[in-house]
Amino acid sequence: MKKSLQTCIVCGRGADKRTWNNLAVLVCRNCGLTWRESFDLSEDYYVKLNEGRANLDTQKVAIRLRNSEDRFNTIRRFLPRAGICDIGCGDGSFLSILRDYGYLKCWGIEPSEYYHKMTIDRNLDVIKGEIDEILNISKRKEVHAITLFHVIEHLDDPIGSLEIMAESLRKGGILIIETPDKDASIQKATDHKNELIYPEHLFYWNEKSLCRVLQEKGFKILKISRRSFDWKHSPIKTSLMRLGMVKSLSKGNTSLDIKSQTDKDVVVIKDKGKNFFRELLRILLAYLVRILGRDDYLLVVARRI
């Protein structure tokens, strides 16, 4: 890993030191881009990630697929019918959704041995490697779109990676990036003390910094939106925090339960009527968060010009 920087990689301005979730970070005084003060991950960190871990259980697989289908529906109108490369594809959930909807010639790149094996089991076309593999792919195949979901925050050289993607896409090609939004309402509610702030995230982007760097690297912004992981199943408390109606978590608790609602999120009430209205309230709050744009992630669609 490269050493952390003292000036912003987007605008070149200075930064102020802060502490987020017990991590030392630097916050750009101009564009707001934030990065860890120390990039202390080993070079092979992501290759060995989850080494020895048991396979995902059926419920987690189903939730990831459900989340990927929601993401697909959000960006569907921008996707070409063929030639999509999902960089950092993880277990291949998004590629599986593309296949289910009849998209052709879709590939993935994944550095983790653990996740790469899962994509093989799913019979997906995934190369085990780093981002620069897209250059080799683009020489052999027509790449019309690149998706980068929750990857750019992990990169120690995001500018160089964006340049590689720009080189791999022809004029008119689509680049779609999803990353945690450092300015999201959930970050303000928790004072940046939550499960989206952790050592593997080297950079924390906002709309201003991400759009600026994309434009400088030869992309035109087509759409900016927000979403959250499996947002339709968000717990009531999480939605209230996103709406600013709950200011913080209980003392000592940094878990947002933002990834998905599970059995522990549902209070068992004997009165079925109360259960019904509680579930109705949960759904209404989740949709209100979506309508007001208070979700956790920044989703940007851009075209190569």
From TrEMBL:
This is Methyltransferase type 11 domain-containing protein. CDD domains: AdoMet_MTases. InterPro entries: SAM-dependent_MTases_sf. Gene3D superfamilies: Vaccinia Virus protein VP39. The lineage of its organism: Bacteria, Candidatus Zambryskiibacteriota. SUPFAM superfamilies: S-adenosyl-L-methionine-dependent methyltransferases (SSF53335). PANTHER family: METHYLTRANSFERASE TYPE 11, TRANS-ACONITATE 2-METHYLTRANSFERASE-RELATED. It holds the Pfam family Methyltransf_23.
